[in-house]
């Protein structure tokens, strides 16, 4: 069981000024933020990040959405981080999410759902390496 996961505050949530509220919820849920940056994905990088969804009906819209504006990317640490963060996140569709989850509070619908979280340890490691250089994460410099 790994202890790191990748979170993205997606363009809709950045546009709606939810960055602060979402980061506060993450800290309140006892995740340690070990990497954080604001960036805007190119189509190329988005297609690498979402390679597993290539060919699905929603793929083109997903690439348009995730590249539509700035995002905030966070490397998070906690015991059992992937599962714990998916619990805080809620399911893909905010309409099916429980009260208190990030997608329930900040998401609009199954496509525009405010926040990303890795779905397994293997993908967390891949996604972290796509989004962060090792030297951009706190645990590389002994902090
Ligand atoms: O993000 P999550 O792991 O919950 O869901 P996913 O199945 O890995 O899909 C990735 C993203 O694609 C979702 O978060 C949605 O933004 C989008 N999506 C969509 O637009 N329509 C769907 N039917 C499924 C996913
Ligand atoms: Mg996923």
Task: For this entry, give a set of tags.
143 residues, alpha+beta, Alpha-Beta Plaits, binds cytidine-5'-diphosphate, binds magnesium ion
Write the layout of secondary structure elements.
Layout: E1 4-9, H1 11-15, H2 19-28, E2 32-39, H3 43-49, H4 59-66, E3 71-77, H5 81-89, H6 102-106, E4 115-117, H7 121-131
Antiparallel strand pairs: 1-3, 1-4, 2-3
Bound molecules: cytidine-5'-diphosphate (CDP) and magnesium ion.
Structure report:
With 143 residues, the protein is of the alpha+beta class. It has one domain: Alpha-Beta Plaits, CATH 3.30.70. The protein has seven helices and four strands. It has helices spanning 11-15, 19-28, 43-49, 59-66, 81-89, 102-106, 121-131; strands at residues 4-9, 32-39, 71-77, 115-117. The protein has a four-stranded antiparallel β-sheet with strand order 2-3-1-4. The radius of gyration is 14 Å and the shape is globular. The model has no long low-confidence stretch (mean pLDDT 96). Bound molecules: cytidine-5'-diphosphate (CDP) and magnesium ion. Residues 53, 58, 62, 92, 110-111, 113, 116, 119 line the site of cytidine-5'-diphosphate.
């Amino acid at each position: 069981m790994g202890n790191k996961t990748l979170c993205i505050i997606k363009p809709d949530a950045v546009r709606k000024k939810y960055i602060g509220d979402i980061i506060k919820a993450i800290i309140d849920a006892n995740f340690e933020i070990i990497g954080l940056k604001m960036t805007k994905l190119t189509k190329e990088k988005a297609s690498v990040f979402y390679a597993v969804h290539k060919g699905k009906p929603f793929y083109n819209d997903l690439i348009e959405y995730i590249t539509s504006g700035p995002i905030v990317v966070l490397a998070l640490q906690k015991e059992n981080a992937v599962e714990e963060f998916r619990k805080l996140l809620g399911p893909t569709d905010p309409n099916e999410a429980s009260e208190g989850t990030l997608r329930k509070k900040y998401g609009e619908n199954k496509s525009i759902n405010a926040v990303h979280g890795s779905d397994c340890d293997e993908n967390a490691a891949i996604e972290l390496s796509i989004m962060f250089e090792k030297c951009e994460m706190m645990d590389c410099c002994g902090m």
